[in-house]
């Protein structure tokens, strides 16, 4: 199992005392950014509280069974009947699209993603089977059981613009951060140096049931069993570290902020091969390059 970089708990970006009693189970990161944890993954709400219908954006769509919790958070944060202006997908793995089809149809909302993720979001291609040999923990060993079949939101799906803008999110831009998935993206707001990472790196050992449950803050590379291109993953982490963010919200684990987070992120970028990359594994030996991702077709 790869190593981790411990982070002082004081670097947590969420305030457990302030947010512990919220009925919608969300945790505020900034005035207009909050996240909600669903078993093993986070979804992110971007928009001012009380923003109303079409006044906010959902980033990623959780796991199966999380629809009611996401809807409850939307009502509590933005108002009764408040639909988002868009859903933005960092990528299309099963734990980020669990209720995407239902929400996109119910809310009649566009779904934005990188063009290289389109095959996994329009029903035309499946991801490769996860590699259980790389994880070292129970979730890693169970990973071949995880769904790889695509969802189909083709009626709502839009490619993110090539200029890096995010149409429903003024002031934000998307950054292509492949490695974990061909069209994986992260979202960056320069004004306050806020970074929504997806799974480009994470702040818990996602391969371990214990680590996922306890959520002790530590920096890891992307979840190993689903990462298909470690060279690209290394470049992506270094790209994000070079932004020198003030706070990071990851797809798995607690958000972190401040100098201690930046120290750990730089250490991860500098020592990525030792800390993040498994010694052996299917995609260590034979990486799946981003441009080849759509070669994986769902079985007939």
UniProtKB/TrEMBL annotation:
Residues 1-22 are annotated as: Disordered. It holds the Pfam family Lactamase_B. This is MBL fold metallo-hydrolase. Residues 40-252 form the Metallo-beta-lactamase domain. Residues 11-22 have a biased composition (Basic and acidic residues). CDD domains: yflN-like_MBL-fold. SMART domains: Lactamase_B. The lineage of its organism: Bacteria, Pseudomonadati, Pseudomonadota, Alphaproteobacteria, Hyphomicrobiales. It comes from Methylobacterium tardum.
């Amino acid at each position: 199992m790869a190593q981790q970089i411990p982070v002082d708990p004081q670097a947590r970006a969420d305030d457990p005392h302030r947010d512990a009693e919220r009925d919608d189970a969300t945790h505020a990161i900034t005035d207009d950014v909050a996240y909600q944890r669903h078993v093993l993954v986070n979804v992110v709400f971007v928009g001012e509280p009380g923003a109303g219908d079409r006044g906010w954006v959902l980033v990623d769509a959780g796991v199966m069974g999380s629809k009611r919790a996401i809807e409850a958070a939307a009502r509590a944060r933005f108002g009764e009947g408040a639909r988002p202006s868009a859903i933005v997908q960092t990528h299309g793995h099963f734990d980020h699209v669990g209720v995407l089809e239902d929400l996109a149809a119910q809310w009649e909302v566009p779904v934005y993603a990188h063009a290289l993720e389109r095959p996994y979001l329009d029903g035309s291609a499946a991801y490769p089977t996860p590699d259980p040999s790389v994880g070292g923990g129970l979730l890693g060993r169970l990973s071949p059981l995880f769904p790889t079949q695509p969802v189909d939101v083709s009626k709502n799906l839009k490619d993110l613009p090539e200029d890096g803008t995010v149409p429903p999110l003024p002031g934000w831009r998307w950054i292509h951060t492949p490695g974990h998935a061909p069209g994986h993206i992260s979202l960056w707001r320069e004004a306050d140096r806020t970074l929504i990472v997806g799974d480009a790196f994470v702040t818990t050992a996602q391969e371990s049931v214990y680590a996922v449950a306890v959520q002790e803050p530590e920096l890891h590379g992307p979840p190993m069993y689903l990462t298909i291109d470690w060279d690209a993953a290394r470049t992506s982490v270094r790209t994000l570290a070079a932004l020198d963010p003030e706070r990071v919200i990851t797809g798995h684990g607690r958000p972190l902020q401040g100098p201690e987070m930046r120290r750990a992120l730089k250490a991860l970028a500098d020592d990525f091969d030792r800390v993040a990359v498994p010694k052996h594994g299917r995609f260590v030996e034979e990486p799946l390059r981003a441009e080849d991702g759509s070669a994986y077709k769902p079985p007939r």
